[in-house]
Amino acid sequence: MEQKFRFAIDRGGTFTDVFAKCPNGKIRVLKLLSEDPQHYKDAPTEGIRRILQEETGRAVDSDGHVDNSLVEWIRMGTTVATNALLERKGEKMAFVVNKGFRDILLIGNQARPKIFDLNIRRPEILYSEVVEVNCRVIPRLDGKCELGELARQWKTVEGHTGEKFYVTQELDVEEVRRSLLAVKEKGIDSVAVALAHSYTYFGHELKIGEIAREIGFKHVSLSHQVIAMVRIVPRGFTSCADAYLTPHVKRYVEGFCKGFKNNLRGTRVLFMQSDGGLTPMENFNGARAILSGPAGGVVGYAVTTWQKETDLPVIGFDMGGTSTDVSRFAGTYEHVYESTTAGVTIQAPQLDVNTVAAGGGSMLFFRSGMFVVGPESAGAHPGPACYKKGGPLTVTDANLVLGRLLPEFFPKIFGPDEDSPLDKEESQRSFADLTRRINAFLSEEKGGGKVRSK
After folding, report:
1. Could you give the CA distance from residue 180 to residue 215 in angstroms, rounded to a whole number?
2. What value does the mean pLDDT take over residues 196-213?
3. Parallel, antiparallel, or unpaired: how do β-strands 164-169 and 136-139 relate?
4. Reported pTM
5. Which end of the chain is more exposed for a tag (fewer CB within 10 A), N or C?
6. For the segment 383-394, what is each residue's pLDDT rounded down to a tens digit?
7. φ, ψ (nearest 5 deg) of residue 341
8. Hydantoinase/oxoprolinase N-terminal domain location, by residue (predicted)?
9. Do residues 327 and 354 touch, judged by C-beta distance below 8 A?
């Protein structure tokens, strides 16, 4: 079999790292800004193109598409879903639930992580609209509950698990159609459906999904397909996360494919999932992509740093441009099946990684007398002020000015020709502007006082 190129890529919010194993055994490593529209449309595609061009001299076809016939496989971990959740840049979506359960996700599970905290924060919601559908099934508890004549009027159905249910209210198809059309007219193209007991009896969910697709919704997340579990609250949260993130993830995957000849047909493309496993790109979805990038980091350091002889646990600290991830490995991968990321609880297998919206690209603000960091990120475009693109002040700029970040050891990929180092002078000018604004505020609000230096 002819040897081909193999690529492993980490596509973060700020930087993209490309690792390539060439047919002759040569190893190539390349770092690019994840977004740099002046020079390329997609960083992973550009990284692959550059390496193929330098190694073979024939990376693209006559239409400008990368020739993937030279590539055996591509494996990628990405923080596209993570960052969309952290920055709330997912798809506008609606939540469909049984009538009377409109606020079930707003109420949540009433958990109190800090039982004496007087400032109780409700779980965050991702949906923009709620559609209540008048349908209901209840468990048939033969011999345990007498329903008399009423039960004889109800149809009995059997769930996927063998449990039997009464259909106390059939689905009104026309009412569902009208309700979903009203939501569609508001510009919503994604919908999540979570009904009571649909973990086992999902006939109503399937019908609602069918109607939504007929109407023209671009994405439909049915809870029994996303995560078939008993509890409707975590099932609803996870379905909403899937509907919120999957369109965003799919758009990225489609855009990535468009850069290659024949949309990457014939090339094996795998994406890292939150649980540390790989999945074909057509199966890559939002609910299982939250920790795609961080999971790759856990697998990487677990393989390269943990030693069976010493049996010492290893702590992973991965600070990127948008988020920071902390994890632990002690010989086996630690998984959780319910986790909260950026205020959203998701029921799906994930490596035990704690993610916070604080990275090198976290923006620095002065608001109403307070110093604020993030959660907004400068990303890769325009990036921090020192990236020479007119970006805002960030944690990276602060570390650069304080001497904690040394430009000579940082990739020289900035400026119009992508060959300049970080611009410390630009960071200093931005801090000088911030200093003037702070002192002007102090002078106006407090009538003078101590002048702050930069």
Report:
1. 8
2. 94
3. antiparallel
4. 0.79
5. N
6. 899 998 889 999
7. -120, 125
8. 6-216
9. yes
- The pLDDT of residue 1 is above 60: no
Q: Is residue 293 a contact partner of residue 303, using CB atoms and an 8 Å limit? A: no
What contacts 241, CB < 8 A, 6 or more positions away?
Answer: 85, 126, 286, 287, 290, 344, 346
Tokens of 322: 């948008």
Pair of tokens at residue 140: 């048939």
Q: Domains, the chain, ranges and CATH?
A: 5-85+252-288 (3.30.420.40), 87-245 (no CATH), 362-446 (no CATH)
